[in-house]
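ok so for the tutorial part 2 we go from a plain amino acid sequence to predicted structure tokens. step 1 is just haveing the sequence, like this:
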Amino acid sequence: MPITYAIEPELSAEEFRAVLIGSTLGERRPIDDAERLERMLRNADIIATARDGNRLVGVSRAITDFAYCCYLSDLAVDAAYQRQGIGKRLIAETHAKAGARANLILAAAPAAESYYPRIGMHPLKSAWVIPRAF
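step 2 — the prediction. this is what the tokens look like for a chain of 134 residues:
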């Protein structure tokens, strides 16, 4: 069965959690805080999904103004489905929804740093952060 892609603004926190864990992104996300995961989803502007039948195998979650910038805050593909172009397609779906005139920006997980240049993304020379309080 082919992978299907959709924009799913009502994605459940349970499915989101499962794909975070399956992708290893869960190591850097609050997977044991259901309320926080729910808030992450409900306050996102774009939630793009990849499904194999009914099974969620990938998700892209972004915050955007739909005009100038789009911050891709989560890109997770279940490890069993990686290296099939799903992540690249989720990025494309997210960018299309945000608008071609919006810059798509992300902070790469350390294990994924080599992935993004291979799909045509360019590194930024500097980025700054005020760390969150857990």
